[in-house]
Amino acid sequence: MMEKTDNNKPIFFEEFNVNESLTINKEDIVNQVKEVFDPEIPVNIYDLGLIYEIKIDAEKNVEIKMTLTSPNCPVAESLPQEVSQKIKNLKGMKSLAVYLTFDPPWNQNMMSEDAKLALDIS
What we know:
Blueprint: E1 12-15, H1 26-33, H2 45-48, E2 51-56, E3 61-66, H3 78-88, E4 95-100, H4 113-118
Parallel strand pairs: 3-4
Antiparallel strand pairs: 1-4, 2-3
């Protein structure tokens, strides 16, 4: 496991022994990510719009591109790690890489309708 912070390298990367009979899918990843909450906002980070992209290639390598509500977010170090820990419990992937980006910057328009409703934002 290695941690990197520049934009071209993952903040988290790990390789796994893949079981060829198991297949990772986006829905399972989304379900795991929905269990991660920003500690300052009572909404999961997927519905907040902090997950920009989930990619699974033909070789079962998983890449997650995510952001934070602000570059100065107090959970800047722990939130990507929590996402990584949740996803790496899933079976059927060869590797997991999590990238942190602030381009484009997060804004409230990225939130799901459920998140806006929960936070009383119209």
